[in-house]
Amino acid sequence: MSAPITRRRLVAGGAIGAGVLLTGCDRAIEIPTVRKILFTGEDMHRGLQRALTDRRALAREFSAAQMSPIFRSNGTRDPGTPAYAALSADNFAAYRLTVTGLVNRPLALSLAQLRSMPARTQITRHDCVEGWSAIGKWTGPMLGNVLKLADIRRDARYIVFRCADLIGGKPYYESIDLIDAFHPQTILAWGMNDAMLTIPHGAPVRLRVERQLGYKHAKYVTGIEAVASLAGIGQGKGGYWEDWVDYDWYAGI
């Protein structure tokens, strides 16, 4: 079964066919004309999509035989900061994932603690805004279970992810709402293809939110914050690419 043909995929494919060089999710749509065409009418498309689709439905899962022999990395391949280099040099023994904000029980979880939690393994397709797709296996605890452990408050509406990588000198961040946060296929992956997550793919922990495009799958996650509003996060649009390159906040597929 091929990936669904959406307006975003058609435009990305057309750009590639026309000779536009897209070298990664951090370069796709930086060309103003392409970006303008891609997001024209996006608000109407997004509203219709969210209204007409069941956001709790499961993304398709695949068999091991269908896994891609090559799975490219999207976005940053290595944060390259001294702090991250120190963590990776020690196999992330000192890593802590903080869970803060509108929670009654703030957490600071080590990689060992995350690995000790009940894990979900799923083989899904990653669809990059650049126009490529790949199928891989991901393992990690469901985000919803981590939020339950932190006793998320009733006034929380969004989950913000803080990351170790920098783009243009700015820390990467992303966000999703509680429907996606508690979706059973939304996991904090520490494993990929039956091995520990590699640095290019977001070690030690990355978000997998399978009903959305690849740039929503934050890598190098160091912090999770429950908030009532996105107004105080960056420029208020909910993520790095949304704030600075006009990407769409809801990237449902």
TrEMBL record:
SUPFAM superfamilies in alphabetical order: Oxidoreductase molybdopterin-binding domain
Domain Oxidoreductase molybdopterin-binding: 92-227
Identification of the protein by name: DMSO/TMAO reductase YedYZ molybdopterin-dependent catalytic subunit
Superkingdom of source: Bacteria
Lineage of the species this protein comes from: Bacteria, Pseudomonadati, Pseudomonadota, Alphaproteobacteria, Sphingomonadales
Listed InterPro entries: OxRdtase_Mopterin-bd_dom (IPR000572), OxRdtase_Mopterin-bd_sf (IPR036374)
PROSITE patterns listed in its UniProt record: PROKAR_LIPOPROTEIN
Pfam family, one: Oxidored_molyb
PANTHER family: BLL0505 PROTEIN, PROTEIN-METHIONINE-SULFOXIDE REDUCTASE
